[in-house]
Amino acid sequence: MTTVSEHDSALARAMARPEPEEKVARRILDAALEQFTTFGLRRSSMDDVAKRAGLSRVTVYRRFRNKDGLVEACLLREGSRFFAQLDAAVADLPSMEERVVEGFVVALRHSREHPLFGGLLRLEPEVVLPYLTVKGGPYLSATTEYLSGHLRRAQRAEGRPDSDTGPLAELMVRVAVSFLLNPAGRIDLGDEERTRAFARRYLAPLIGV
């Protein structure tokens, strides 16, 4: 029997995997992304994706057993692409503090601007909200695990004492999701400079806690 932690670890590994090697699978996922971001999840079917990809429905079903599997594969691939963006953004930064700040900026920008994440939240909020709230546990855990590993590597590279980076990683994810769901409030993160200032003042100091 698979435990919750094993499922979360498997999900984290899946989110960090590269693009599918098979050309047809990539073609289907490209078509699915375009279909879902144009018409939403509810109004999209496997047949719609097959037609957009220029493939038979049998070919699509052979690689993705049902619509839920296709949606999950699409989300995982976009998550993997986000991790690649994050890696590139923080790779040359010299300190954990700077990585936390820039990582938060990249995460919030990506969530807002991405056609699948931010786009579907505007197009079909009633469909997407559960996956960012009550059904979001596995994705929260997977993203937290990934970010925590990133912070641990930076911690060791700087020669800092080992400490649990999980709470800080989870806090970054939760704060980013909160601002994505409800950007209105007294804290103005309307542009990247304000976002950096917020992260520098409130998130970076938590490294030493």
TrEMBL record:
Keywords: DNA-binding. PROSITE patterns: HTH_TETR_2. SUPFAM superfamilies: Homeodomain-like. Residues 45-64 bind DNA. InterPro entries: AlkX_C (IPR040611), Homeodomain-like_sf (IPR009057), HTH-type_TetR-like_transc_reg (IPR050109), HTH_TetR (IPR001647). Residues 22-82 form the HTH tetR-type domain. It comes from the Bacteria. This is TetR/AcrR family transcriptional regulator.
